[in-house]
Structures are given as structure tokens and as C-alpha cells.
Amino acid sequence: MFAVLKKELKSYFYTPIGYVFIALFLAVVSFVFYNYTFIQGSLHFEYVVWDSTVVLTFLIPVITMRMFAEEKKTGTDQLLMTSPKSIISIVLGKFFAATIVALVACLLMFIYYGILSKFGKVSLVEPVVAMLGFMLLSMAYISFGMFASSITENQVIAAVISIGFFLIIQFLTSYEGIIQMFSLTQMYQKFPQGIISLKEVVGYGTFIFLFTFLTIIVLQRRKSVK
Fold first, then answer.
1. Residue 183, pLDDT score
2. Phi/psi class of residue 76: alpha, beta or left (left: φ > 0; alpha: ψ in -120 to 50)?
3. pLDDT for the residue 78
4. 71, 149 Cβ separation under 8 angstroms
5. Contact by Cβ (8 Å): 81, 222
6. What is the pLDDT of residue 3?
């Protein structure tokens, strides 16, 4: 897993992909921050984090669309399929590499918290909990984006599938039962309030496990066919 993780991190940071993701992410956060701080005069950093979650819908596919689709298209997936490394280690390596890229972007958001602290007394608990929820949401999006990339050889199609799915689940807030597990944004609502709910944490964990597992199944089937 660590060999795959190292390889994937190099692919993100030795190419523009990782930097483009972080730059676009911070550009959106800067706009949200300006709106809350300078327009509305708010010192609640957790709401800056909350409103910034919308950017994940469009940016997470940037780092997930190429995970397997590119390798399948170029034929380099043959190396993965015949590699002595297990499918599980390959999938987890790619998943955690993308998670680290998202984590770097998330940590850079604390620059704005530092700026806010210069204007007055700013709470730390709510922003930290909001960041925790932000990372769980990011990991959930990454798991689905990874799955989308595993079922097609076209990066654009993988990105469109991911964005379409993320937009659809925005409208699942009014449903109950198992469908509610896919309402990722609704599960996030308690985090900016400084509340870590076991139900929401388990919900994110279940979602991440589900689509990571489905990705492994897809690749296992492909390997068995070849």
C-alpha cells in the first residue's frame, strides 16, 4: 500500500493536478471568507468552512477521475492487475493519497482562522470540529469518485458521474431510512455547531467503506477476467 501511496502522491505533486486542486480550493474559500468577514462582519470561521463544502462537489472529481480511468485507457492497468500487490492495497493506496491532498488543502484553511483571530476572539472548538466533518465529507466524496473512475476508462465521464451523483445527493435531505445515508451534506450539519455525533461519523464511515469495497469488487472482477 505504501508503495502505491508514494507513487500516487508523486503523481499529484510532480504534476499540476495537486496544485490546481489546492489553488482552486483556496480561491473559493477566499471568496467565502471575504463574504463572511468583510461583507457581513462575521468572526465565525466554522461557517466559512461550512459554505466551502460546496466546492468539493466540483473539485474532488479533479483528483479522482484519473485514478483508474487513465490507467485503463493507457493500458497501464495491466501492470496493476499482474502486480504482486493486492487489489486492496492498490485501492487503499490511491484512496489515502487523494485524502492527503484534500487534507493539505484543509489545513491551509487555518490561514484564514489566523487572520480572523487578529480581528477578535475566535472560538477554536467549532472550527476544529467543522474541519473534522469537512475531512470526513471529503473522504466520502473521494471514495465515490474513486469508484466512478474504476467503472470507466474516460476521465471526463468519471468526473461527470461523480459531479452528477454529488448534485443528486444534495436533494436527499428529506428522505428517511437507508437513502438518508447518501445525504452527505445533511450529515455534515452538526459539525459546524461543534457537535461530533456518532451517528454522522458512522454514516460517513459506512459510505466510505461501501464505495471503497465496490471499487475493490470492480477491480477484482476485471482481474479475474484478464
1. 78
2. alpha
3. 61
4. no
5. yes
6. 85
**Whole-prediction pTM:** 0.91
Q: Are 158 and 64 in contact (CB under 8 A)?
A: yes
Residue that the C-alpha cell 493519497 belongs to: 97
C-alpha–C-alpha distance, residues 12 and 224, integer Å: 29
No. of helices (H) and no. of strands (E), the chain: 12, 0
Q: Which residues of 195-218 are buried (b: 16+ CB within 10 A; e: fewer)?
A: eeeeebeebbeebbebbbebbbeb
Residue with cell 482552486: 24
Separation between Cα atoms, residue 165 and residue 225, nearest integer Å: 28
pLDDT per position as a tens digit, 90-133: 999 999 999 999 999 999 999 998 888 887 778 889 999 999 99
| pLDDT-flagged residues of the chain (< 50) | none
Query: Which of 190, 6, 222, 9 has the alpha carbon at shortest distance from 98?
Result: 9
CA 172 to each of CA 184, 187, 204, 224: distance values in angstroms, whole numbers, following the listed order: 9, 11, 15, 36
